[in-house]
Amino acid sequence: MRLSGNGVVVTREAFLEWLSRGKTFVTEVVARRFRLPFPAVPTPKTILLPQREALYRFFWAKRTWNVHPLPPEGTPVLLLAAPCEVKAVTDVLDAVFLGNAPQDPHYATRRKNLFLGALGCTFFEATCFCTRVGGHPLSREGADFFALPLSSGVYFEGEGLSGRPLASSEKEELEALVADLGKTAPPPFPEKTPEYLYEAFGRDIWEDIAWGCLNCGACTFLCPTCFCFDLALEGRLRGAMIRTWDSCMFPKFTLHASSHNPRSHPMQRVRQRILHKFSYHPLRKGVFGCVGCGRCVALCPVNWDIREAVERVVSCAL
Amino acid sequence: MNSPWEPKIVAFLCHWCSYAGADLAGVSRIQYPPNIRVVRVPCSGSVDPLYILKALREGADGVLVSGCHPGDCHYLSGNYFARRKFLVLHELLVFLGLRDRVHFSWVSASEGQRFADVVKAVTEAVRSLGPNPLREGESTCDAP
Amino acid sequence: MTLRDTARKLLEENKVQGVLGYRKGSLPFRTRPYLFRDPCEVEELIFTPFCGLNLARYLLCLPRGIERVAIVAKGCDGRACVALVRENRLRRENLLILGVPCPGMVDTRKLAEWEDLQEHEVSFRGEEIVIRGVAYPLGSFLDASCRRCRYRSPLVYDILIEDSEVPSLPQEDTLRELRSLPEEKRWEFFRKELSRCIRCYACRNACPMCYCKECFAESHKPSFLHPSPTLRDNFVFHLGRAMHLAGRCIECGACERACPLGIPIATMFLAVADTVREYFAFEAGVDVAAPAPFVTYREDDPNAFIR
């Protein structure tokens, strides 16, 4: 358990009042579980990497192109998210957009302005599998503060809010919750999963695994860790360069200017998605590129289950 | 300098009839509102519904598609096929609540005055609707 | 003979090399498409009111080695098969349509109201659905496209599984309410829904009639819309797709079921199908021989909307 146990307990009213002091959002997962009077966004990605963003404006005048980069902007925002969604930001999005020089200025500005809080989960949904990929429903890691509703108030760890220490009954409640979650937690994927998947690239099993997937972009767009984007101009003599989400599931994702497409077949794209999240990203950065939030499983139109796909390939290798 | 809003209407005119009709209106010095921007096409049947949607997407407040009268198509049956396609598009736009943005007409090469009348009527219809409703719209992708 | 026995026999006798059907999913009330190739796998073939996915969508991407395939076909899936044959995408003789009468498919979103609902807590009894012991009229739980379905049983089939237990609910005019709204309210409704769309293309990819190798939405030269999901681009995508499906949409509602955001996208395509039915007396996937509505014309076609 990653909670220090050194937090404080505040009343629900005090917690809500503290949250209401600035511009506050919750993610849809949090909104679904708790009645909170704040607008909901699908994932932290919606704030940090909006689906449509203008990077520079251009216009033709005086016989030349005039290009004006748009300054990065961000207003201070508080976002209350589930621990898996926080992990998506710290383990994947930050690594990609801030991990190498030059940092993405638009992402960096928004990230600096984001006060990110984790609201602990008290149970696993049928689609949850954060513990399979190194996460935990009570994880505080990466978050600016942590909160967990108890029967008698809200447990809080972090700066900015003071309260009373935990009563012994509350300590017991926390311990019982931790034990309960421990019993129901989905077990982690086998240790060498990234290596097994990497070695399984050329196997025949992928045709079978990929069949059924519609190759739409629902999973990638709803995924809190997916970050691929497309750059496309809008306008002709006057317009802007727009950054927009792209999906590795789309057929033109890897279409080269020469018209060669290394992933023209749907199977290749499905395989790539699994390998990117469960093999390439962990091999390079040490953490899975998936946080086990389960959205893709819940919302896939054909119930294509990425957990089963990984299990099948790994069991093939073992 | 802020001039009052004037509707911009893209007009797809078939070369053999409607475009010639518009030309006749011109040489006859018949006045009609200057809000239309003409795109000459070979036949009303060659007008893909996607052109009409693209015009609306680019900010046109209204669209006019005009061809030869049924039976008079230079390519014999192009306008008959067009009529079926346009009926479906028209009904779909009405269903969406966007009646009167997209108009259709049959204007022959000798109907200069009639072309002017059609343009007048279409311009007034679009003007009363106001600017293109697609221009401003909330987008899921705007950062909150 | 039951569906499973029929399917098993077809595979055992090698009448077909695969049976396209449904299998239990990994979550309550979810099913998934599956190509059964081995007779012993057929144990897992199911057909329940949670099988809304249109299987005909997979007929054009079967794996190698399948010469003849059987497809478990509801009324709408059967229409898709006929429509694809008519468009020369499939050979009729390579297809075995295994018709099943359809009770209508349940809109699983309506079940979200019951917290933590499990499959064994839901049962069907004639024209009622029983949830945790309480009975409700089945009609109110069906998908919108199922409530207005005209062809619950496939018209064209090779084998039809008899099932007298399947209720035949009356047809509803599910678009009546929308049509009765004043124009501004209708546009408000569509403006809001079209603005919500994130252009994931789940609707298009779930549709059996959308099989273009390059969709107009992904065309760069010419470009009809920008990749970003603004209202104006979503408008072009959905209306463009509606026009491409005019006279081809088989009214199955797979698009609406696929949408991860629950946008009632089928309303548009169903309205277009109604227009084609009303003015051109044509329904897709009903008669293999009927000429497509947009490659023919009549001199007395409706003209009143043209100046």
From TrEMBL, chain B:
MF term (GO), any: iron-sulfur cluster binding
Pfam assignment, any one: FlpD
Domain F420-non-reducing hydrogenase iron-sulfur subunit D: 9-130
UniProt keyword annotation of Aminoacyl-tRNA synthetase present: no
Protein name: Hydrogenase iron-sulfur subunit
Superkingdom, taxonomy of origin: Bacteria
Keyword Iron: yes
Sorted UniProt keywords: Iron, Iron-sulfur, Metal-binding, Oxidoreductase
